[in-house]
Amino acid sequence: QVQLVESGGGLVQAGGSLRLSCTASGRTLINYRMGWFRQAPGKEREFVGAVSRAGGMTSYADSVKGRFTISRGGTKVMVYLQMNSLKPEDTAVYYCAANVRDYGLDYDYWGQGTQVTVSS
User: Buried (b) or exposed (e) across 22-39, using 16+ Cβ within 10 A?
Assistant: First the structure.
């Protein structure tokens, strides 16, 4: 069982930046494909981006491409989502997820989420 914990959410003005972090209580995350998802009020949860096990490949939703960056920490126990040029439509609960396979959108473990609110 992998228990993921997100942190770093908060309130920011449009155009600002936030960095979200995801950890599994010190457990290495290098064996998992790591993804970020978000869910806005009244909407379905949507894919934001993912990083491969080795960290060499990332993918992003078109809505965040060029503004968000996913990376792995050097200690291999952290995954980050750097969010720049934030827009009010980025407001959502953001979830970190781990996938035992290095492909697909069927993730096995999920965090509880962290709220991101972007004011206009």
Answer: bbbeebebeebbbbbbbe
User: Radius of gyration (Cα) for the chain, nearest Å?
Assistant: 13
**How is residue 99 written in tokens?**
């996938």
DSSP string, 52-120: -TTS--EEE-TTTTTTEEEEE-TTSSEEEEEE-S--GGG-EEEEEEEESSSSSS--SEE---EEEEEE-
What is the percent of the chain with per-residue pLDDT over 90, rounded to a whole number?
Answer: 81
Instruction: Give the mean model confidence (pLDDT) for residues 77-92.
Output: 96
Q: Three-class SS of residue 15?
A: coil
Angstrom CA distances, 89 to 20, 39, 61, 71, stand at: 17, 11, 14, 23
Question: pLDDT band at residue 70, thresholds of 50, 70 and 90?
Answer: very high
Structure-token pair, residue 1: 């069982």
Q: How far apart are CA 111 and CA 23, in angstroms?
A: 9
The rounded distance, in Å, linking the Cα atoms of 97 and 22 is 9
